[in-house]
Specification:
- The chain has about 100 residues and is mainly beta.
- The chain has no helices and 10 strands.
- The strands form 3 sheets. Strands 1-10-9-5-6 form a 5-stranded mixed sheet, with no helix packed on it. It has a 3-stranded antiparallel sheet with strand order 2-8-7, with no helix packed on it. A two-stranded antiparallel ribbon has the order 3-4.
- A hairpin with a 4-residue loop joins strand 3 and strand 4.
- It is elongated and about 50 Å long.
- The two termini are about 15 Å apart.
- The relative contact order is 0.33.
Length: about 100
């Protein structure tokens, strides 16, 4: 179930970056080369454009976005671009504003 927010709320977006080791056959949290977040409102307006996320621990990042006064209601979406060396990856997320 998607999270639901209202005016003045602050969606808290987190991500963990793990890399698989074929040698040990395990996953491990690691810091990527770069990690950026983009947030788009229901009208298609980019509200956050490739902003850096805050590192909270090795491989763990967060971003807190405060909704503006009278935000667009509906389904907000966004993505996190992670680059590990030369390997890019994009993870999508979304939330509802009422």
């Amino acid at each position: 179930m998607a999270r639901v927010y209202t005016e003045g709320d602050s969606p808290y977006i987190t991500v963990e970056h793990e890399v698989y080791s074929f040698d040990t056959e395990t996953w491990a949290l690691t810091d990527p080369t770069s990690i950026k977040i983009t947030i788009i409102d229901p009208d298609g307006n980019t509200k956050v454009d490739a902003a850096n996320m805050d590192r909270v621990a090795e491989g763990k990042y967060e971003y807190i976005y405060t909704l503006p006064a009278s935000p667009a209601t509906g389904w907000w979406r966004g993505y996190i671009d992670v680059v590990n060396g030369s390997r890019p990856d994009r993870e999508w997320f979304g939330f509802t504003v009422k």
